[in-house]
Amino acid sequence: MTAAKTAQxxxxxxxxxxxxxxxxxPQNLAFWVYAAGVGAGALAVLRYFGPGADFYRPALTGGVxxxxxxxxxxxxxxRRQNRYTAQPGGLLAAAFCWGGVAAxxxxxxxxxxxxxxxWAKVGGTRFAADWGAGLAAPINEEIGKALGLVLLIGLAPRxxxxxxxxxxxxxxxxxxFQVFEDVLYVYNGAAQSFGVDQIGSSLxxxxxxxxxxxxxxxxFSAIFCAGLMWVIGRTxxxxxxxxxxxxxxxxxxxxxxxxxxxxxxxxxxxxxxxxIGAVELWTLFYVMRHxxxxxxxxxxxLLAPEAETGVxxxxxxxxxxxxxxxxxxxxxxxxNRRRARHLVEAAGDLARELALAGGHETARxxxxxxxxxxxxxx
Length: 378
Prior knowledge:
Largest sheet: none
Distance between the termini: 26 Å
Shape: elongated
Helix content: over 70%
Number of strands: 0
């Protein structure tokens, strides 16, 4: 066996790419904790919305439809980011469900209310009104969302391995939290106005929450969960406790800043959201680049035998396992944006088929290899 083939099999084993995800595992305690959290969250949803569902139906319907449409570009964006040793859809759906139902209604709502009461007793009513949200939500909500990642590790230990897995799964958990919380805001807005102009109120909240959504819970959780995976260190050589703790702390600080932006002061109110948003996005891309290092190495090792035989040339290997700058350089080399994209996608498909086949030759592997060669004109 060649060194490249050995590296390929090692990458398949370490990454877990190609392993199926099964949620129903009655012999696994993590499944019962997950089921209890989602079940309790679903009951809380019924209790919260049930009494006023008929009267506030226009607001609820509008909120569900608007934020359901808002979800579509998010899913397309995250699907694009789930490009390396991609996680299966079932696992990501379970992450979204945990964030939307369990983390929001089972953990965050009661925990935030309880902690706000504590802050009111400690610092007084005015202190709680000014700072309570920023001192409660980052703790309760980030930990509640990250609990979903821990449970998914228990349910799929071979799939959830590296920091980039935590980044992607955390983004889906945060997205679920974000969408369900936005619908909750629509409902509360209609209730505060006693049901007057429910559609107009829904549209107003949709515009405000939608505009700030890019630097909201999906971002917080992606950063926090990547940090948690660095602390846990499930992949050989990836554990970095200091980096992980700082990353988790950064997510909580960002969350605090958004919740208490109105009382932080020091910067004009018009400038502060853009300043905080710019810092958050820079941190997001920094974390994403560093979290993807192991995933990119696995892709290179997966395709190493194909590179040895000339199926994948060095430039294509660099593009399919690289970041945006490598893909940009490959597009310039090919001089055809569409063809470059198809080549990168075909090489990614070949890597996926090799992982699914455990490194063995199958008809699907042969077909994916032939497609790469066809696009290369070889």
